[in-house]
Amino acid sequence: MEKGKIVALEERIPKLKEQRRRKANRRLVLLLILFFTMIAIIAYSQSPLSRIKTIHVNGNEVYSDAELIRASGVSKKTNIWKVKKSDVASKLQQLSEIKKAEINIHWPNTIDIEVKEHKRVAYLKQDKTYLPVMENGEILNDRKTKIIPVNSPILFEFKEGKVLNLMVKELENLPSEIVNSISEIHYFPKKTDQYHISLFMNDGFEVSATLRSFSEKMVHYPSIMSQLDPKKKGIIDLEVGSYFKAFEPEVEENKGE
To answer: Whole-prediction pTM value?
Structure first.
């Protein structure tokens, strides 16, 4: 019995050695794979192949792709390993019309820039130019234009501050079809109301209102107009109640001149 046990043990020794050799070989292969992978990564990161090859820009309307790429600080000479997404997004969000920016990296060499712009709510008349007014109440002095805007109301006598912020907020609360029907908004503060405004509509009517209840009452403008003679122009007063006063004939004539 003892001799039988010794023979079995002697038979197992070569098998154990073979198992250990195979295990050692697998470890060696794994180490070699890791080693060459690290060498490849280091070589790639230091080579021209690691430079950004493609930059995609999405969500922009006001800014061109080139403007945003330039502001981002990245280019096709930039090493993709050195791109910090938070830093790039921060640079873009410093632009006056960028509300939010998000950066995504797609290996091996592609960058996606996704932006959300502030919406232009109106334009401010200044001398012979028009300055965009954004949804956050900011006036963009560096984006002035001499072309008369046709898709947004034109503001007169407004300045950055609480009155303009309230004006923007009230416009945002109105349906787009009503906002598009407004040609001009003039800020005319009174002793009794520091928030008084006068509107000139595209249909030839004038509206007198206060910013305190502007959107709440102006939303009914279409129903008010349905009860008026479109040929008989005048002022629609929305300050306290809601009533209509026709223009005097001589006033209409002067306006026509």
So the answer is: 0.71
